[in-house]
């Protein structure tokens, strides 16, 4: 080490002199290169299970110090040592869950050159040349036949790299428990409840029902039985044993009631059903949801009514299910005194509806305001020509009884307060028959006209990350945290000025900017991170044409996001345009890149709510002479 120290000092000095002559004067950004001898470069893969160390050595021959040079001889700069340094990652999932075998696992070998020299690597029998800062991705596939733990291996320049992947296999195992069924008629269709149990390790779907591992669920299945015995039925591939026993109760029945009636809408007509078990086995059945048990020789009388609404024939039905499956019907002719009900909305819009008895109609009203006072009412009349009709009306004021003479009508109005968007059901009952109307309020954005704009004050705190200015000798990366300023419109163009807050490796800095755009071109001056950057650009399309740093032209790549969009975009005017559509265009005028573009806008009765692609929510208010934006983007726009 003592002999090596002078050589190291001489190499370091020569490197510093080479850097000094390589860097031009007044460069905006400078870097310092240090030559190293016998230096070990180590890199660790970011993959969870692969860690590889690559060591690169620069050999130095044992030399003696050259004789001193005359004072007039300048030092000779040695060229920098360029060495490649490779970092290898095997990218693959840690765990693969599958419900089928065999499967293929796709993985990628990523080789990155993190050194300062171009190098060649051999991956999978193929050579790749990688420049500094570049990478090569090689895709590969591994076929897996059985579950377990597998190691994906690859050689890069003869050095093995690997990644461990665990493969888990999941499948359901289903079985059904035996079912016992008693029938009273043959052949017959019956619905049985089959208990299916999942003894596997994966959720199964049986007849649309999910069954988790270790869980048992009941599946209803309808089958046709032709004889007693032992059967197997298929429930989505599961064989379920069914034991069918046959019993023979015998039922006699009669149905009756009036053949013809007169009624008003809402009245009812009744019929009866008589059932007797004349068999030798207890009969169990359900009539319209009611459980009936009839021992041998027993009988039951059931009554049922039907509500009438219009003239015609009505059928009273008794639905019997169980050991007896039948539908008994009795028809009655109804002569109706028809009642006509009209439901009306008077404000905010006049609409008339004549809903059918027992039904509800719907209407939609468009309103610009969030809170609306709606006035509605009804008109009731009949077609009676010879008799007065008693009508019982239930409305928001309660239940009242009226006598309507032939040709007379009954009317009443009500007012309710509604919120938009929203809906409200208004209804009345006439002789127990409901007549309803669903009123929906739909917010319709008002139309706005913006003839001209003279000034825009704004502040945008939506962050814009990873902005980079790339120049010939150095790069600078930073995040834009906030941009604020004032945009003024003139007869020939526009001007802008304000402040910009950025975050870089040196911390959070506040800079300033100003610029103009007119006549198909523009410029922007930035005082940022201790540098004065002057950017010139053309319009339609926007292209940066010149960049100066601290007064010196440089070949730099400056992202367009540094130039406020409102400086070169169209003036956000509008002519009789819906407020939500205009708000979308207005927010688009401030968008810095695709992430700031608006996704949707909704008028809520007070303002337009706009959401951009990153989830930021802004509120756009329309006031006399101004448009105001609140949220992470704030703006005050003076209009005329």
Walkthrough of the structure:
The chain has 640 residues and is mainly β. Helices cover 5% and strands 58% of the residues. It contains three helices and 49 strands. The strands form twelve sheets. Strands 35, 36, 37, 38, 39, 40, 41, 42, 43, 45, 46, 47, 48 and 49 form a 14-stranded antiparallel β-sheet that branches. A five-stranded mixed β-sheet has the order 18-24-23-20-21, with no helix packed on it. A hairpin with a 3-residue loop joins strand 25 (339-347) and strand 26. It is flat. The model is unreliable at 1-65 (pLDDT under 50).
Concise structural overview:
With 640 residues, the protein is mostly beta strands.
Keywords:
flat; 3 helices; 5-stranded mixed sheet; mainly beta; 640 residues; 14-stranded antiparallel sheet; disordered N terminus; single chain
User: What is the general shape?
Assistant: flat
The residue fraction in helices comes out at: under 10%
Summarize model confidence as the mean pLDDT. Answer: 83
- N-C termini distance: 81 Å
Query: Roughly how many Å is the radius of gyration?
Result: 43 Å
Structural class of the helices, strands and pairings?
Answer: mainly beta
